[in-house]
Amino acid sequence: MGSAASLASxxxxxxxxxxxxxxxxxxxxxxxxxxxxxxxMRCRGLWGECVWDKFxxxxxxxxxxxxLNPHPAAIIFTRAFLxxxxxxGIGAFLCLLLGCRYFSCCQEPTAKHRCLRLxxxxxxxxxxxxxVGVIRYCVYVFSQHQYEVSLSIPxxxxxxxxxxxxxxxxxxxxxxxxxxxxxxxxxLIKTPSTNPAKEHAGNSIRMMQTYV
Length: 212
What we know:
Radius of gyration: 25 Å
Number of helices: 6
Mean pLDDT: 78
Helix content: 55-70%
Largest sheet: 5 strands, antiparallel
Strand content: 5-15%
Shape: elongated
């Protein structure tokens, strides 16, 4: 059971990091359709926006000229939280590998136990920060288009959440799942005794009780 938990935590941890970095590198957090017949589609991300012209079938992208320019607070908030989540995910995954029983770099049981504990905290922090950033962005986008959504007019310019946002959601859920599986591994591994004399005395007493 322990080997399955280790494999599951490593796979979900890698998935969390890949999805979080992928959501930062791709630029389709929000999709807008323009016009009654939707001749073009606009993908907006955290760092720029792209437009797909369905008539000529060409992508044109516009990256922000300066990241220091004034932007909506929700965009800056989401950027900061996603970058923090990605950095925490790197540390969490390294601690998870060091704490894995099949990783030969760190052989001391006490050190492995400590690394697993650190990975639980890092993954939990990474998942929560990513969730907060995604929720803040969703609230911002919905508040911007609340009036359009309330009209419910067919063919009216509408919006939907893009694949980059769903990648961020998958990354945050995978980080939280990894923290739970790593915590399960921590509960499976018994903390080694720091006093061998007491441990030997305890074993002797248990042997005497067995013989009696």
